[in-house]
């Protein structure tokens, strides 16, 4: 995505939809369901690597009760550390740039009535600066840091351009803390062409929300997760898709891909076994293109539940655990 600056059109200031001071996270999430927030922007146009359009649609239409949600109080969650480190990142940004920043304690709304669904939460505003007006703070661990090796990831650029669209501002700085020790600052200029494209695609998504029409699936783990929660039960009905060329072609292609995957899996096993047979009792082998390791894991001690229940069957009645079933997608050809 090119981030070249364009001439900034005149736009009224963003509306303050609701103050976030004293607002609980549940209340804040409820407000966000009224539109597309800046952190929703990439998912709404199919560019978020972590959330599909279908999963976001379920959230916006109130079908997300069964979906897993990040716990902001769990120290194992990236959301927790992002919240803890945000003010530290902002403070270091001010120290390095000399710019003063201020929290924006409000959910903002686009001032145009036909874009009422465009919402934004800004981390900070940059005070009295002609060059940059918005600060977006990010943190990334070892895995997430890979997405930043070529600069700001596309899905974050969508988020920031959405913020600039809602606020009418000219530029934003993205300050990211990588792996807890490397602070990088990136400037993103307002791009009118990109904003117009975003608005068009976001409007299409919001139409799906307002008409209660599920968007198309995209093959991601997020879409698969959403489908499992959207259709958790089957009713025993059999549908005949023989007259649908689109679905029949999809089924034929699925069969061909499954067959190819089986062949590739067999080839992979053969190649792995060839290397293992030459390694013998060695722990590691090196090649011009990399290396492999073949090490024994430590022994572990577990509980023989089957034997325990055989010896003490009454325990099953005292400590029952119901595991919910799930739908299995099986192919018959």
Automatic annotation (TrEMBL):
<dbReference type="GO" id="GO:0004519">
    <property type="term" value="F:endonuclease activity"/>
</dbReference>
<dbReference type="InterPro" id="IPR051703">
    <property type="entry name" value="NF-kappa-B_Signaling_Reg"/>
</dbReference>
<keyword id="KW-0378">Hydrolase</keyword>
<keyword id="KW-0540">Nuclease</keyword>
<dbReference type="InterPro" id="IPR011604">
    <property type="entry name" value="PDDEXK-like_dom_sf"/>
</dbReference>
<dbReference type="InterPro" id="IPR019080">
    <property type="entry name" value="YqaJ_viral_recombinase"/>
</dbReference>
<feature type="domain" description="YqaJ viral recombinase">
    <location>
        <begin position="27"/>
        <end position="170"/>
    </location>
</feature>
<protein>
    <submittedName>
        <fullName>Endonuclease</fullName>
    </submittedName>
</protein>
<dbReference type="InterPro" id="IPR011335">
    <property type="entry name" value="Restrct_endonuc-II-like"/>
</dbReference>
<dbReference type="Pfam" id="PF09588">
    <property type="entry name" value="YqaJ"/>
</dbReference>
<dbReference type="InterPro" id="IPR017482">
    <property type="entry name" value="Lambda-type_endonuclease"/>
</dbReference>
<keyword id="KW-0255">Endonuclease</keyword>
């Amino acid at each position: 995505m090119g981030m070249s600056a364009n001439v900034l059109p005149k736009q009224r200031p963003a509306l303050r939809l609701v103050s976030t001071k004293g607002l609980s996270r549940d209340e804040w999430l409820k407000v966000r369901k009224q539109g597309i927030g800046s952190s929703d922007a990439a998912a709404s146009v199919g560019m978020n690597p972590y959330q599909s359009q279908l999963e976001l649609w379920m959230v916006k239409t109130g079908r997300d009760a069964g979906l897993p949600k990040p716990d902001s109080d769990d120290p194992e969650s990236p959301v927790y550390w992002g919240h803890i480190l945000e003010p530290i990142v902002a403070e270091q940004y001010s120290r390095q740039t000399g710019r003063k920043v201020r929290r924006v304690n409000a959910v903002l709304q686009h001032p145009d009535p036909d874009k009422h669904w465009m919402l934004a939460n800004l981390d900070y505003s940059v005070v009295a600066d002609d060059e940059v007006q918005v600060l977006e703070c990010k943190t990334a661990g070892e895995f997430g840091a890979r997405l930043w090796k070529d600069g700001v990831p596309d899905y974050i650029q969508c988020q920031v351009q959405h913020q600039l669209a809602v606020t009418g501002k000219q530029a934003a700085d993205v300050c990211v803390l990588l792996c807890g020790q490397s602070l990088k600052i990136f400037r993103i200029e307002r791009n009118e062409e990109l904003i117009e494209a975003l608005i068009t695609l976001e409007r299409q998504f919001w139409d799906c929300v307002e008409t209660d029409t599920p968007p198309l699936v995209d093959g991601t783990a997020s879409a698969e997760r959403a489908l499992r929660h959207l259709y958790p039960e089957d009713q025993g009905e059999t549908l005949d898709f023989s007259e649908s060329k689109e679905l029949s072609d999809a089924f034929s292609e699925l069969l061909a891909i499954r067959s190819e995957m089986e062949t590739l899996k067999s080839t992979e096993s053969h190649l792995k076994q060839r290397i293992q047979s030459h390694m013998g009792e060695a722990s590691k082998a090196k090649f011009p293109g990399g290396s492999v390791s073949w090490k024994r894991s430590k022994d572990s001690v577990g509980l023989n539940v089957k034997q325990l229940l055989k010896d003490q069957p009454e325990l099953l009645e005292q400590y029952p655990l119901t595991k919910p079933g799930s739908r299995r997608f099986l192919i018959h050809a």
